[in-house]
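Sample 1 of the test manifest.
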Amino acid sequence: MSVILGLESSCDDSAAALVTSDRRILAQTVVGQNSAHQPYGGVVPEIAARAHVEILPGLIEKVLSDAEMSISDVDAIAATAGPGLIGGVMVALLAGKGLALAAAKPLIAVNHLEGHALSPRLVDPDLGFPYLLLLVSGGHCQLLEVNGLGHYRRLATTIDDAVGEAFDKAAKLLGLPYPGGPAIEKLARRGDPNAVPLPRPLVGSGEPHFSFAGLKSAVQRAVASGDFQPEDIAASFQQAVVDCLVDRTRLALEGTDAPALVVAGGVAANQAIRTALAKLAAKNCRKFSVPPPWLCTDNAAMIAWAGAERFAGGLCDPLDVPARARWPLDERAEKVRGAGVKA
Ligand code: KG4
Ligand code: ZN
């Protein structure tokens, strides 16, 4: 059994966690920066990086003290090394390097997306490889075949906005606070999902790619028309997203023998999305796995767990490993035709 310290600071959440290779979460803590970024309606990279510098050291002390451990009790240090806002990524990675050097512990540079991708395995011991992963977060919307540790095949991606980004933009149009996902989900509970006619971009198309920019523009028009209640727009938007995710994932399931469907990333915290995808998996006779909501949004337990899987596989990194703003899980995946810079 090994104990891994996980560190995360790639976006606007500072987080530290201690996780064991036998799936025990000894301590974990996340501090968000919502109030710092709220006046700007989105994450400001410089503000985020400075906040991580101030917050992260205290979180490392807290998880060690909560678990009644010292750094010498830790077997390895796993830090997110990308992708993300580079100033932020560097904070956890440099903290990890410093601790690894000072305490003479191995360093594991974790891909944040691999953290999300493996997170269901932390809480679901029965989830083996391979599985079809729907990765839905603020920066990504992808379908990947997860064939083993470090073995990812991207089947689809978004040709414009990520799905979390669509939630955040729709929320902003509705005057809701950042991050938009939870705010839309809450408002949608009171609304009629069929009240506002909204498009389902790419639904029915032959490849399982995603597109959300047109949906956002349609929300903009619905808000501007003044014809609809905000809760109806929120519910109709969420339903449109659910329909897109289900249709695209159904198509990807048809093309893979993977016995399980997994959903991960911040948007997987959404109850309507969880329910719809669980139904889709059942219909297609696949096992379904989704982490609890706190493990879907950014956290360090998933980074520590990805570190535990890598440590078990003997995959450690040198102290000069670089921070990476861009770091796709499937490095061979080609740019999608019609895609913007985010593909
Ligand atoms: O994974 P995550 O915490 O950070 C990234 O790696 O991007 O995902 C953040 C995204 C945000 O866009 C946020 O609005 C969305 O996840 N999100 C949700 C919900 N909770 C968070 N979207 C829909 N419903 C939710 N309940
Ligand atoms: Zn994330």
